[in-house]
Write a structure and sequence with these properties.
It contains two helices and six strands; from the N terminus they run E-E-E-E-H-E-E-H. The protein is α+β, with helices and mostly antiparallel strands. It has a domain of 82 residues. The protein is globular and about 45 Å long.
Length: 129
């Protein structure tokens, strides 16, 4: 009998509880983190590792950085993935800041999220004719 894969439990999962009932809500493992999709866009990446991978990555287009940074004072540009923004968990007001960001995402704010790129089939998925 094959062993059942145990899903990692994320301590930050409480952040997305308010949006989990949205019909378009999807979770996927990604690079050791948990990617959250809403309305067809990846809107959050929940990371629980060493800095700078401990908090919420906010996938967004560069053109939206300035307005998001002005609105959410605890959000910063991610030091490694500079095309995305970051809310580090170790800040003083993380809980309220995370809730504010998720409430904005829940309202389908177009500044948050990126469209997933279409996946190319792997060589194993391509069937010969």
């Amino acid at each position: 009998m094959a062993a059942k894969k145990i899903k990692k439990q994320y301590r930050l999962h409480w952040v997305v509880e308010s949006i989990m009932e949205e019909p378009s809500y999807i979770e996927r493992q990604m690079f050791g983190c948990l990617a959250i999709y809403l309305h067809g866009r990846m809107v959050l990446l929940m990371c629980e590792g060493e800095e700078p991978w401990n908090g919420l990555l906010l996938p967004t287009e560069h053109e939206h950085h300035k307005s998001i940074l002005n609105e959410f004072s605890n959000v910063v540009q991610h030091p490694v993935v500079k095309k995305w923004l970051y809310l580090p968990e170790d800040i003083e007001y993380f809980e309220s800041s995370a809730s504010d960001v998720v409430n904005t995402i829940e309202g389908n704010d177009p500044r948050f999220g990126v469209e997933p790129k279409e996946r190319k089939p792997s060589k194993r998925e391509i069937t010969p004719r």
